[in-house]
Amino acid sequence: MFEKIIQTISGMSLSDWFHTLGSLIAFALLFLRLIEFRKKRVDLKINLEQDLFTSHQVQDFDTYNETEIRIKVELTNKGLEPTTLNGADFYSDYEELNNLSMSDEKIMHPYGLEFEFNPIRIEGNDRKTVTLTVFKNTLLPEDKKQINAKVILKTTHKDISKKITLKRNDER
Fold first, then answer.
1. Which end of the chain has fewer CB atoms at under 10 Å, N or C?
2. Mind listing the pLDDT tens digit for each residue in 22-63?
3. Per-residue pLDDT tens for 138-151?
């Protein structure tokens, strides 16, 4: 077996050696390009931290219920390609706070507050912190001190799901 391999190698001409060497160099360059391509991709790391979770009754001109949840989101793109956060959805184990869109901006109008989400661009090797808000006109029971939630962040490359446990904080 080894004798056949040695005979084949010793029987190769100089041009065969150059072809073999060229093929090895081509495979090495392809391997290096694949490594470089993986480095250029988006590598998004997301950290969620609770900012506020309140649920209470408000008495202004009228009496209404209000539940507000704010979550600080730290976005870190370790890749070289930029990406954009286009939206965020909020899901929880509480029925009335399920399948809600999150916003990053409050706009005051004469007829009330409006919440909207502005796309957030994250360049390569960049870090941004943003506060996302869920607002719902509902009152949670007093015994509901904690909510298990899932936030789905929609980026240009993929949807990323993160879980967080929110603890009630009714100090205002």
1. N
2. 998 999 998 888 877 766 677 788 888 887 788 877 776 666
3. 888 888 888 899 99
The whole-angstrom separation of Cα 102 and Cα 162 is: 14
Q: How many Cβ atoms from other residues are within 10 Å of residue 94's Cβ?
A: 19
CATH of domain 44-167: 2.60.40.1890
Q: Yes or no: say if 136 and 67 are a contact pair by the CB < 8 Å rule.
A: yes
Closest CA to 43 of 141, 136, 134, 125: 125
Q: How far apart are CA 172 and CA 170, in angstroms?
A: 6
How far apart are the C-alpha atoms of 137 and 72, rounded to whole Å? 21
Per-residue pLDDT tens digits for 67-107? 888 999 999 988 888 899 999 999 999 888 889 999 988 77
Structure tokens at 76: 């870190």
Residue 146 CA from chain centroid, whole number: 23
Query: How far apart (Å, rounded) are the C-alpha atoms in residues 167 and 32?
Result: 48
Cα 166 to Cα 171: distance, rounded to the nearest angstrom: 15
The whole-angstrom separation of Cα 55 and Cα 102 is 17
